Amino acid sequence: MLIVAERINASRKPIRAALEKLDTIAIHAEVKAQAAAGAHYIDVNGGTFPGREPELLCWLVETVQAVTDLPLCVDSPDPAALAAALPKVKSARPMINSISLEGERFDRVLPLALRYRARLIALCQGEAVPAATAAQKIDLAAQLVGRLTRAGLPIEDIYVDPLVFPLATESSSANASLDAIGEIMRRFPGVHTICGLTNVSHGLPARRLINRTLLVGAIDRGMDAAIIDPTDMQLMQALLAAEAVFGRDEYCMNYIDAYQDGKLG
Amino acid sequence: MAGEIETIRDLCVRGKRAELTQAVDGALAAGMSAQEIMAEGLIPAMSIVGEKYSSGEFFLPQMMIAARAMQEAMATLKPRLVVEAYETKATAVLGTVAGDFHDIGKNIVKIMLEGAGYEVVDLGVDAGPEKFVEAVRSHAPEFVLMSALLTLTMESMRKTVQALESAGVRSSVTIGVGGAPLTQKFAEEIGADFYGEDAYQCVELCNASLR
Fold it and tell me: What is the ipTM, given to two decimal places?
């Protein structure tokens, strides 16, 4: 399971505050905690002050790289911010979060992915309305995979994100994403699937319980990457157990290792 | 009679739609006016729901089912309200601005405004400035309310305010903005009249500006 660590996101209040003061120490602490907890990629998102996103994203890239060799996942819906930040990335294989079929975004992000040999998160986001059903998500995934591979992006570098909408407003929303994950993994050998978990529990109590239950379901359907908070111990424990249960951890070695490292409590 | 109104209020708060519709039918049969049921029963019920949601006691699905129950009860009341010439409190044009497809926050505001007795013209998501201008021209609303979840699309709010100005309709409306990345400062900067921190506050601010 590829873990993209999500904590350095400007939508979180502590990160927003750190960006306001260009607080290097706070960002370094987030990087170190996530790296120690098992992150494979550090996601950086600087979108909170209108007009300043390219500048802040560059600052985040440089600040994070100062304390880790982990590759970065450069996160912005704005192609201009991605274009500004990617040249600063030192790691050989950055990840881009994200491309979609909306408007100009596809044509502007694709050349960046090719140029920087990036792994690319591709959102199943429709042009007009959010893709709510599994069928809509699968259709968008097919368009994305088709167009990206025809443009020369290896299928192994595509991480399809089916998007997960809140259960609070639609009881079948998570199931639609899970069905889409299963079908996308079957239909496009070599492609990856990824998603964030926090949206699903919007408006519900005890949100982390819902989040990790979704993760377990997604692992069952074959999802092989996740945008998560690796410092959430219960979440990481559920991840390890699910991989063992669903036959994705040979001889349960990762599970046993985690236990012997004292990570299973 | 007082007991019936209390029952209606309670059933609406708890989102019991079948029982609520029954209670509303019963109240009408007992001679209560549709207007009274609205003003004393359903609107206060949704205000209680809004308060509970805002304070964290209620969760989103609880508000959704209360709103659904109210909407069903409203369907029963509608023909009577027309006969009684019931007037909505005010009209609000509401939408998620250009480039943004997030509608949960906007929909919560819509539910709460309708619950508070407003007529809502919902422009949906990705609504461009011209769409807002057009809606203001055709509906003559008291309020224009804009929602955005992305930093990138906050600029669409500024453009919409500017478009309303160039169309010469800016002064006829009160403009409210809301959404996760927004601040009071941003609202002032783009020339909006208020910033609602959450859906409940948005309704309160609309109410306050009518007073």
Answer: 0.75
Same domain membership, residue B96 and residue B53: no
Residues B203, B102 share a domain: yes
User: Would A192 be classed as within a structural domain?
Assistant: yes
If you ran DSSP here, which 8-state letter would residue B39 be given? I
- Percent of chain A scored above 90 by pLDDT? 92
Provide the chain B residues 149-188 that lie in CB contact (below 8 A) with chain A: 150-152, 154-155, 180-181, 186
Q: What is the pTM of this model?
A: 0.84
Question: B99 contacts in A (CB within 8 Å)?
Answer: 103
**Closest CA–CA distance from residue B168 to any residue of chain A (Å):** 27
Range of the domain at A136: 2-260
Alpha-carbon distance of A151 to A106, in angstroms, equals 11
Q: Name the one residue in this structure whose structure tokens are 């004393």.
A: B40
Q: Which two tokens stand for residue B96?
A: 């998620």
What is the full DSSP assignment across A101-152?
Answer: SSTTHHHHHHHHHHHTT-EEEEE---SSS---SHHHHHHHHHHHHHHHHHTT
DSSP string, A58-113: HHHHHHHHTT--SPEEEE-S-HHHHHHHGGG--SSS-EEEEE-SSTTHHHHHHHHH
The mean pLDDT value of chain A amounts to 96
Are B118 and B164 members of one domain? yes
Kindly report the nearest CA distance between residue A166 and chain B, in angstroms. Answer: 9
Does residue B141 carry a pLDDT above 70? yes
**B94-108, pLDDT tens digit by residue?**
999 998 888 888 988
Which residues of chain A are at the B interface, by a Cβ-Cβ cutoff of 8 Å? 10-11, 47-51, 53, 77-78, 103, 125-126, 128-130, 166, 168-169, 202-205
- Number of residues that this document lists for chain B: 211
Question: Which of A19-33, A74-88, B78-92, B145-159 is the least confident region?
Answer: B78-92
* Domain span including residue B178: 91-210
- Averaged over A144-148, what is the pLDDT? 98
DSSP B112: H
Contact criterion met (CB < 8 Å) for A50 and B186:
yes
Separation between Cα atoms, residue B67 and residue B49, nearest integer Å: 9
Regarding whether B70 and B147 lie in a shared domain, the answer is: no
Q: How many CB atoms lie within 10 A of CB A89?
A: 23
For B29, the 3-state DSSP assignment is helix
pLDDT at A50 over 80: no
DSSP string, A45-56: E-TTSTT-HHHH
What is the Rg, in whole angstroms, of the alpha carbon atoms belonging to chain B? 18
pLDDT mean over A36-44 = 97
Reported as a single tens digit per residue, the pLDDT across B196-205 is: 998 889 999 9
pLDDT band at B2 (very low <50, low <70, confident <90, very high): low
